């Protein structure tokens, strides 16, 4: 934090505390022009306002809070970059990567630094690790029958996966698959889902414009759309069938795809990037290189096992 923001925070914080003290002292003085205990001349529904001083217990409590605020600032948060006496921090700052976060957490643990986030993570790890270890010993297909495990998996999914696949796991156009329809690029078994979550996936649909040209793309699109029962131009479709030989290496002669390569089934009318003529043309012209990130380092294998169980349950 720069010195400007440190001064800014310090002035506002200390000014607020001192302001509370000044206001309290002002309220303790009799500024009403009426002797204490006398009527203020206000009456409503038989209730009369008297010029009484602030209660002693309330005044002393306010003084204690003001004094405590200075001790609290000195011991814990500090003021901006001035730090505090205990070395307390809410979290390790200016971290650029997960690895750097782990290194700083390990360093804080070795030196005994008071980093609140690290302490909370350590507490959570000690408390919940045995639960995840027990879940990890049960196969995904069996664990999917455990409602408690599914609730845990759902929460982990919401925190880590819903940003792309949606809170209902139905995905969206643009390369985010629907996880509820039993249509899988790399396989929908428990182990395959775990493999995807652990290691991630990277699409490798090449661009075909240079090889086929615009007319060739148009013809191939017509044939590809016909594989899912779409009505297309017959002449374009016939020409595209010959060109499809270049696509068959991944998608198969029948267009049903190949889960070993992550090549989609072109016959089921389920489209990852949209199934309109324009969207398929764009896919063939420019290719697709979507990325599913690996979560092995983020969640760990045991938590991934539970997430995989939840994802498996969505389509089973």
UniProtKB/TrEMBL annotation:
Main localization is membrane
What detail does the entry give on cofactor binding? Binds 2 heme C groups per subunit.
Q: Which cofactor is recorded for it?
A: heme c
Localization annotation: Cell inner membrane
- Keywords, comma-separated and alphabetical: Cell inner membrane, Cell membrane, Electron transport, Heme, Hydrogen ion transport, Ion transport, Iron, Membrane, Metal-binding, Oxidoreductase, Repeat, Respiratory chain, Transmembrane, Transmembrane helix, Transport
Record domain Cytochrome c: where: 148-228, 235-315
Q: Transmembrane region positions?
A: 7-24, 60-86
Looking up SUPFAM superfamilies in the UniProt record yields: Cytochrome c
Question: In Gene Ontology terms, what is one molecular function of this protein?
Answer: oxidoreductase activity
Pathways involved: Energy metabolism; oxidative phosphorylation
Q: How does it assemble?
A: Component of the cbb3-type cytochrome c oxidase.
Q: What does this protein do?
A: C-type cytochrome. Part of the cbb3-type cytochrome c oxidase complex.
Per the record, the similarity remark reads:
Belongs to the CcoP / FixP family.
**Designated name of the protein:** Cbb3-type cytochrome c oxidase subunit
Q: What is the lineage of its organism?
A: Bacteria, Pseudomonadati, Pseudomonadota, Gammaproteobacteria, Alteromonadales
């Amino acid at each position: 934090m720069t010195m400007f923001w440190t001064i800014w925070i310090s002035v506002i914080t200390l000014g607020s505390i001192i302001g509370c003290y000044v206001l309290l002292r002002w309220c303790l003085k009799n500024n009403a022009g009426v002797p204490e205990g006398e009527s203020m001349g206000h009456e409503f529904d038989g209730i009369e306002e008297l010029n009484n001083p602030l209660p002693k217990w309330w005044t002393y409590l306010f003084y204690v809070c003001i004094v405590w605020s200075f001790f609290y600032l000195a011991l814990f948060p500090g003021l901006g970059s001035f730090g505090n006496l205990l070395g307390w921090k809410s979290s390790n700052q200016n971290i650029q990567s997960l690895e750097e976060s782990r290194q700083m957490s390990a360093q804080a643990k070795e030196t005994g630094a008071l980093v609140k986030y690290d302490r909370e993570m350590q507490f959570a790890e000690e408390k919940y690790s045995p639960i995840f270890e027990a879940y990890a010993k049960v196969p995904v297909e069996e664990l999917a029958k455990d409602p408690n495990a599914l609730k845990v998996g759902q929460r982990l999914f919401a925190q880590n996966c819903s940003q792309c696949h949606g809170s209902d796991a139905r995905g969206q156009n643009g390369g985010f698959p629907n996880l509820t329809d039993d249509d899988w690029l790399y396989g929908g078994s428990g182990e395959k889902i775990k493999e995807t979550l652990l290691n991630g996936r990277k699409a490798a649909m090449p661009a075909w414009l240079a090889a086929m040209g615009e007319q060739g793309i148009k013809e191939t699109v017509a044939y590809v759309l016909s594989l899912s029962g779409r009505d297309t131009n017959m002449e374009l479709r016939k020409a595209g069938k010959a060109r499809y030989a270049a696509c068959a290496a991944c998608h198969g002669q029948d267009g049903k795809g190949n889960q070993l390569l992550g090549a989609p089934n072109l016959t089921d009318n389920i489209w990852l990037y949209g199934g309109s003529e324009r969207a398929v043309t764009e896919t063939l012209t420019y290719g697709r290189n979507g990325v599913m990130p690996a979560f092995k380092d983020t969640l760990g294998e045991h938590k991934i096992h539970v997430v995989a169980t939840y994802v498996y349950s969505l389509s089973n």
